[in-house]
Specification:
single chain, alpha/beta, 12 strands
């Protein structure tokens, strides 16, 4: 295939992969699109060309799937449109480096057209997703395992997190690519590997029936509040009183023992909230014999202007002692400025995002003990990092996510984020409560199944009852280590087997030729 046509094919395959994620839900699609990518890698002798094909696939995937960051930069961040477009393109190009790296590894370590090339490609793909999830703060969004939240491979999530379903999906893609090219010449081997993969998929279905956690305590009634405050108004000082009135009214109408308001529900610092308003919230929580959790900011003044500290926080009010959680994993260039001495002036000059230079809270913070439950609090983007959340989940009975996806308008972001939250519930075997500004506010059970949600971009209260859970999944115990070790083991075993086969082949050739 001509190089230009191959690049176009990789680009389109990457873009098509977006339809496997929410809200579309074609969960098996990555097995086909990755098979197409692996087939494009198969005849390539040059690692550089394999990198370019992987990069093209990644560019298609991320431009189609996460270019909603443009909305945050331009529409709500007031960045000039050309600069926002350039920034979005640069972000997507950075993410596309990781699929490119997987292609480079496969071509660098294995022979073109070989079965080992396909197996290494699947393992390298998984390792590249793992690397993308933590390098330079990490961005694991659109890892292919997320497409399996409500599909057969979801049963592996409590064992190895989102990466394990993704790995088996990639191995399935490798088999498809190999079957198309080599079934006639390797019929027996392909049938054996097909049987092995079928067992993997059947075991995934069986694992979905396993309860990795058990109910603890009495079920708790919850009220999840969705204020639907437009992002264009949220931080406008003249709109503040209306925001307080909206949430005050919604809280008064809430019936749950646990009332949850979204991220930055009160767009102000804690010491700016009027005592009588705090007392109103406190009184309501006590009347419901429970607690209220809300998002707002904390400010700590330093000795100089550059020493001031701002925290994106959640605070509890009610019958239990007051507790505060401070967001640990901040969004680069949105909540924190990497290499501030280099990029600080640029970000402040082209972006108008409130509180864009926040301070992270501690990596581990005790779960909130409220309303008879222990809550692992996480704010917005933090639920995209399962390896960080699992430590807090081990000591908690419920997960609670506080989010404001209004930054991304009516894009794919909110549905994708909901799917990510469901994966965290699956991995930890804990229910997930989500309170959001504009949606998606939802209740997700410990199997990752969404039980109820509020309509998107509406104002309301989601009432429900949820039971806390306890018990540790393998993923909570070991994090990503199991999958990373498995992928490395597969690569090492495949390369050793290929080397041994080449030696045996050369030995047989020497004997046939009479060489001693």
């Amino acid at each position: 295939m001509p190089a230009t046509l191959a690049m176009l094919a990789a680009l389109l395959l990457g873009a098509a992969t977006v339809f496997s994620f929410a809200p579309f839900g074609a969960s098996a699609l990555p097995a086909l699109t990755l098979a197409g990518l692996f087939a494009l890698w198969q005849p390539v002798a040059s690692p550089r060309r394999a990198f370019v094909l992987g990069f093209a696939f990644g560019l298609g995937l991320f431009v189609a799937g996460v270019s909603w960051v443009y909305v945050a930069l331009s529409t709500f961040g007031d960045m000039p449109e050309p600069v926002a477009a350039l920034g979005t393109a640069g972000f997507c190009a950075y993410l596309a480096l990781f699929p490119g790296l997987a292609g480079w590894i496969a071509a660098r370590t294995t022979a073109a057209g070989s079965v080992p090339r396909l197996i290494v490609a699947a393992a390298a793909w998984t390792l590249s997703e793992w690397l993308r999830g933590w390098l330079l703060s990490g961005f694991g969004w659109l890892s292919v395992g997320y497409a399996q939240v409500d599909a057969p491979l979801a049963g592996y999530a409590p064992v190895g997190g989102v990466l394990l379903p993704g790995f088996f999906l990639a191995l399935t893609a490798a088999w498809i690519a190999g079957a198309i090219a080599e079934f006639d010449s390797r019929r027996r081997q392909m049938l054996i590997s097909a049987a092995a993969l079928a067992i993997v998929w059947v075991c995934g279905i069986a694992l979905m029936r396993v309860d990795w956690s058990t109910p603890v305590g009495e079920p708790t009634t919850v009220s999840l509040v969705q204020g639907n405050i437009g992002e264009e108004f949220k931080f406008v000082p003249s709109y503040r009183e209306k925001t307080l009135a909206i949430y005050g009214d919604l809280v008064e109408r809430s019936r749950g023992r646990l009332i949850v308001l979204p991220e930055s529900a009160l767009p102000m610092f804690a010491d700016e909230v009027a005592p009588e308003y705090v007392e109103q919230l406190h009184s309501k929580a006590k009347r419901n014999d429970g607690d209220l959790l809300l998002g707002l900011f904390y400010f700590e003044q330093g000795t100089g202007t550059d020493d001031d500290r701002y925290f994106n926080s959640v605070v509890s009010i009610g019958t239990s002692p007051t507790q505060v959680y401070r967001k640990h994993h901040l969004v680069p260039f949105g909540e924190t400025i990497p290499l501030k001495s280099v990029f600080g002036w640029l970000i402040h000059s082209v972006l108008s995002i409130p509180l864009a230079d926040q301070t992270p809270g501690p990596a581990y913070q005790e779960p909130f003990a409220v309303a008879g439950q222990r809550l692992a609090v996480n704010i917005c983007y933090e639920d995209a990092f399962g390896n960080e959340l699992d430590g807090r989940a081990a000591d908690a009975t419920l997960l609670v996510n506080f989010t404001n996806d209004a930054w991304y308008g009516r894009s794919l972001a909110a549905e994708q984020h909901e799917q990510i939250a469901a994966m965290r519930a699956l991995e930890t075997a804990r229910p997930m409560l989500r309170a959001t500004n504009t949606g998606i506010t939802s209740i997700i059970d410990h199997h990752g199944v969404e039980r109820s949600r509020l309509p998107w971009f509406t104002r309301g209260i989601l009432e429900g009852t949820i039971a806390g859970r306890e018990g540790l999944t393998p993923y909570v115990r070991f994090g990503d280590a199991l999958v990373v070790a498995l992928a490395l083991l597969v690569i090492a075993t495949t390369l050793l087997s290929a080397r041994r086969a080449r030696r045996n082949s050369l030995g047989e050739f020497g004997r046939d030729a009479g060489i001693q």
